[in-house]
Amino acid sequence: MSQHTSRPDVQRSRHHQTPPTLATVADEAGVSRQTVSNALNNPDLLRPETLERVQSVIERLGYSPNRAARQLRSGASHLIGLRFEPAQEGTSNALMDRFLHTLVETASRTGHHVLLFSGNPQDPLDGYEDLLRSTAVDAFVVTDTYAGTPQSGFLQERGAPFVTFGRPWDEPDADHAWIDVDGAHGARIATEHLLEQGHRRIAWLGWEKTSRIGQDRRSGWEAAMRAAGVETAGLGVRLTDNVDAARMAAHALMEDPSITGFVCASDTLGIGVLHACAERRLRPGVDVGVVGFDDSLAAQVTWPGLSSVRQPLEQVAVEIVRILHTVLAHQPLEERGRMLRPTLVVRRSSTRTG
Amino acid sequence: MSQHTSRPDVQRSRHHQTPPTLATVADEAGVSRQTVSNALNNPDLLRPETLERVQSVIERLGYSPNRAARQLRSGASHLIGLRFEPAQEGTSNALMDRFLHTLVETASRTGHHVLLFSGNPQDPLDGYEDLLRSTAVDAFVVTDTYAGTPQSGFLQERGAPFVTFGRPWDEPDADHAWIDVDGAHGARIATEHLLEQGHRRIAWLGWEKTSRIGQDRRSGWEAAMRAAGVETAGLGVRLTDNVDAARMAAHALMEDPSITGFVCASDTLGIGVLHACAERRLRPGVDVGVVGFDDSLAAQVTWPGLSSVRQPLEQVAVEIVRILHTVLAHQPLEERGRMLRPTLVVRRSSTRTG
DNA sequence: CCCCCGCTCTGGATCGTTCCAATCGTAGAT
DNA sequence: ATCTACGATTGGAACGATCCAGAGCGGGGG
User: Fold this and answer.
1) Pick from A191, A286, B14, B149: CA 20 to 30 A from residue B103's CA?
2) Residue A328 CA: distances (Å) to CA of A199, B164, B236
3) CA angle A60, A66, A68 (to 5 degrees)
């Protein structure tokens, strides 16, 4: 009856069932293996009635193609590699959570999964090499691309498909796909918001000069201040990303009572400013306006609510998956990179009417 | 010269290099494929000098076995599946981040990677089925096992290897491996800490009665209070997990000035209590003692620092990987489940000497 | 009437690895 | 000298899918 050497019927008696294979389905439907394969991958090649017959058998047996076999033959693993770092300094890692979830969800819509790997923190390339050699993933998403990281150069040279979350900062000959969030724009709208609230002398609490992302955000504050005709001399400070540093810097700045606005490169710094306010019995929102960056959970729950610049991480993830598909299909990109705009979440730390 | 049909030498001229295969290595080293395979998987079968020769060729060519082929033949994908949910209510998702990173790192030590997948939030089983059928993962880690979730039953029935982070609450016939954190113990040490600080009438701010985890934590508070001989009537309240609910509940409780301690089922609730303190001009730590749960970032940065029960998530991840290896090796488990103890991180919200 | 084409469908070959049985050579026992 | 045992290595088969070339079958054009 069966022309294929299908597995014996013992299978159903065993506890740990062997899943049905393509050959099982073919036998059951009375067609060849290739026809079943086509039913899955090129349904329009089949006659409608054959297609339906095969599909009903697939349904009945609960068949899913074996991923290893598919990958071996076709070369595509349908896996997207992402190196998962421990809590990054500066950018709160709750960010990563929001991003990652949308990435997983979006990728799954097209049958892709996300594979997490780790590597020696000292070596930013560790882990990539092995996955490439063993052809374990189809593409990479690279997230930790602050200036000077070698991942993109390495992957480009190896001809591996990838997209970075983060623009190529100082690499003129980089020509890979990227997505980034316009930090300068975020700082600008935050500053403009405080200007609208009537603040004039608005301080910037940012990171060390070595942080390219920090410099970018700061430039948005500078631009907004310049546009408003306000001098910035003495208003911008550079700190490490922790609450106490910001608290003390805010105290120093508040010695000058004309300074009533604070735009910060992170929520951590913003919360530091709120602490200084509390210690000086100044009312956030009313006496002083404060805006943070990244809209972390801490910004939401802290008293009295910290306004913050929110990155469109969900959109970033969706775009990344879209671009990956384009790259994997060997289609030309419409654009090398795309910049997304963050939005401002206003809370009571910056509203006088609250 | 070459007895195997190895790929043509053109490979080196192409940009997107084809990685070397086992056959390439075998040719180069003048041995059979099987010998190379043994060099990787059963090195002690080879004569030392053969082993060394093969290894040096592997090194020189930069060979890694193709994962798809290996998986197809041996049946093991070396992937661990984890359904990655969006921000879970109640348990802050920053928790997940800490856990996940250690999981990825620990798993990678034995050549395993973590595969994230998603599923329809309405259907807790969605996603598992497909991965099982397509034999894409070796095992699952199940994290969202509050009471009544069907994952463990389903996986057990299917004979799939898995470990849950979370004990089987109301399933007497469950016999799968699990790891959990003793929430009752966490609440107990938090309560005892406040008792030591001189508080007597200590309130509990927890979740609805339907939350099994919440009930467990509450029981720790009750036990500590009973041991100290303090009546708990009227001191325990049930809330939804948000700041305002806790703030208002705290206000109501503080009408009774004998109530000076607050143990909370989450940091979010703990922060609500801190807000109430601020509004009443009560000094956290001095006038009132507050302890939260989960040691989130918010607990660390909030003013004046929220004491919190910290789960040993890194240890949980390590244990899970250990158990997975035992299960995958078909070795018997020493114990069905293991309970880990959380620790208390003391900050200024609960210290009078601070 | 025949040929050719396109639509369906088929069966063998193949991807790169590990499993399996068999082979070879050498040493120790008979 | 012959047999057995064993350590080291080998080559064919298999895992389950897709690629590829080709076969059967009608139908339209010459």
Assistant:
1) B149
2) 50, 35, 57
3) 175
In sequence order, what are the beta bridge partners of B140? B81, B162
Calculate mean pLDDT across residues A303-332.
95
Tell me whether the omega of the peptide bond preceding residue A304 falls within 30 degrees of 0, making it cis.
yes
Helices and strands (H, E) in chain B, number of each type: 13, 12
Task: Supply the DSSP symbol for B326.
Answer: H
Q: Where are the alpha helices (DSSP H) in B47-136?
A: 48-61, 67-74, 93-108, 128-133
Give yes or no for residue A189 having a pLDDT over 80. Answer: yes
Architecture of the domain defined by A183-311+344-350: 3-Layer(aba) Sandwich (3.40)
Facing residue for B114 by CB, picked from A116, A158, A275: A116
The values of phi and psi at residue B6, to 5°, are -85, 165
* B300 φ/ψ angles, rounded to the nearest 5 degrees: -75, -40
Task: Pick the more confident residue, A97 or B188.
Answer: B188
Say yes or no: domain A79-182+313-341 is CATH 3.30.40.10.
no
Residue at B34: amino acid letter: Q
Which residues from chain A sit within 8 angstroms of residue B130, using beta carbons? 64
Tell me the chain B residues in contact with residue A65 when contact means C-beta distances shorter than 8 Å. 134
- CATH class label, A9-65: mainly alpha
Q: What is the β-pairing status of strands B343-345 and B307-310?
A: antiparallel
Sequence ranges of the domains in chain B: 9-65, 79-182+313-341, 183-311+344-350
Mean pLDDT by 10 residues, chain B (354 residues): 38 60 96 96 94 97 97 97 72 73 94 95 91 96 82 92 93 89 98 97 96 95 98 97 96 97 97 95 96 93 94 96 94 93 98 75
What pLDDT does residue B172 have? 79
Q: What is the pLDDT of residue A91?
A: 47
Residue-level pLDDT at A306:
97
Choose among B71, B86, B274: nearest Cβ to A101.
B86
Going by pLDDT thresholds of 50, 70 and 90, the confidence category of residue A7 is very low
Suggest the residue from B97, B130, B244, B306 to mutate for an interface test with chain A (most A CBs closer than 10 A).
B97
Measured CA angle at B308 (ends B306, B311), to 5 deg: 150
Asked whether the beta carbons of residue A301 and residue B302 sit closer than 8 angstroms, the reply is yes
Instruction: Give the distance, in angstroms, between residue B2 CA and nucleotide C27 C1'.
Output: 32
Tokens 């074996």 -> residue: A66
- Fold match between domain B79-182+313-341 and domain B183-311+344-350: yes
Check if the beta carbon of residue A167 is closer than 8 Å to that of residue A178. Answer: yes
Q: How far, in Å, CA of B295 to CA of B264, rounded?
A: 12
Q: What is the mean pLDDT of chain A?
A: 91
Which of A67, A113, A297 is facing B298, going by the closest CB pair? Answer: A297
Provide the pLDDT for residue B94. Answer: 66
Dist CA A292 CA A275 (whole Å): 13
CB-CB contact of B189 with B233 (8 Å) = no
What is the distance between the alpha carbons of residues B277 and B306, in angstroms, rounded to a whole number?
Answer: 13
Q: Find, among A339, A319, A321, A317, the residue nearest to A329 by Cα.
A: A321
pLDDT at residue B173 in the model: 78
- Closest Cα of chain A to B231: distance in Å? 32
pLDDT of residue B87: 59
Task: Tokens 């918001």: give the residue.
Answer: A193
**Greatest extent of chain B over all pairs of C-alpha atoms, in Å:** 93
Residue B277: C-alpha distances to residues A119, A177, B208 (Å) = 45, 50, 23
Return phi, psi of residue B201, to 5°.
-85, 100
Q: With a cut of 60, say whether residue A13 has pLDDT above it.
A: no
Dist CA A47 CA A161 (whole Å): 36
Question: Which residues from chain A sit within 8 angstroms of residue B85, using beta carbons?
Answer: 101
Q: Residue A10: is its pLDDT beyond 50? A: no
Q: Which of A190, A200, A243 is nearest to A221 (CA)?
A: A190
